[in-house]
Amino acid sequence: MTLAGLAARNVMRNKFRTTLTVLGVAIAVLTFMLLRTVLGAWARGAEFAPKDRIVTRNKVTFVVPLPKRYVDDVRGMAHVKDATFATWFGGKDPAHDRELFATLAVDAPTYFEVFTGLGVSPAEKAAFLHDRRAAIVGDVLAKKLGWAIGDVVTLESGVFRNDPRNPWRFTIVGIYTATTRSADRTSFLFHWDYLNDSLPPNARDTIGWITSRIDDASRTAEISVAIDRAFDEKDIQTQSQDEYTFRNGLFAAFSAVLRALDVISIAILVIMMLILGNTIAMGARERTSEYGVMRAVGFQPVHIAGIVFGEAIVIGALGGVLGICLAYALVHGALSALVEERIGAVFPYFRLSVPVAMAAMGFAVALSAVAGALPAYRAGRLRVVEALRRVA
């Protein structure tokens, strides 16, 4: 029997307590992995976000519109290959009033030329261009709400006035898919012209924001400054930034929550270490007399310390493996599809990554070692006579 084998056997001396401890470690690892996956999915947006797209909005705030004439000005600027625009409609389907999704009034001829990550067939694109009341929706949104090509959908707007005599009615002529990981698959896209013609004359010819494709992704900041400088002397100034920064600005409050989750994920592991350390210390105290006998028959202090230390490592490793298995089963079994369906605009790609799993396992073993270090040290310093006097 080796010291490692003896440590492993000692782990199961109290099966109930060991089981609870392993489950505690597993839950801590599971929670850590879920939180890190959320943070990773948020940060991964920067990795997958197109580097050649710039978003231009009103300098005051996103909710204040821009004049539509600004689009032609942006298209004529140096290094801008193409530009499109959109307006937030704030639509909701009365038949699914609890379902939230992005509803955008877009420039039909140019939108899919700029947003190349949205896969639409030529036939669907042609049908969209020839019908002012046509709409194209993401495949995830269509599946969630049971929509199909040819369906007529009536929406209510949370931004624009709803007229019961002339409701916002659309015909779905296409369902787009995502060809890049940054693309949101839960949007409802329709003609800006349809929205504009339905507004009062004094509210027409305004847009929410402009999205441009540029010819040099390495000069995003420089080109953004040039675009804003062109409107400095106009009645309405602009703020231009890369697409990922623009998205982060929309979800600024959510970003603050994620920063808090970063701290919480570390705190959870520290709590796990304290619980594990207490369990190992209890086991070591219960076997004090046994360690005294082992010392009496020739075991060295380093051997006793190694046994206690090994128990902590075994429990941490078992909990880490179980936590990783639970995390993969939960995320890839149901959670990833649910997150991408519900909040695909924030987390278009929600998956566990191998580095997160490796980090979770490494932390579980490392913190187990830290938790077991003090009980192991104390066990190794036991005097034989004092240990034999104690009753286990």
What does this entry look like structurally?
The protein is α+β, with helices and mostly antiparallel strands and 392 residues long. The chain has 14 helices and 13 strands. The strands form two sheets. Strands 1, 3, 4, 5, 6, 7, 8, 9, 10, 12 and 13 form an eleven-stranded mixed beta sheet that branches. A two-stranded antiparallel sheet has the order 2-11. α2 runs antiparallel to α13 and α12 packs antiparallel against α13. The chain is elongated, with a radius of gyration of 30 Å. The two termini are 23 Å apart. The mean pLDDT is 83.
Essential attributes:
two-stranded antiparallel sheet; 392 residues; 13 strands; alpha+beta; eleven-stranded mixed β-sheet
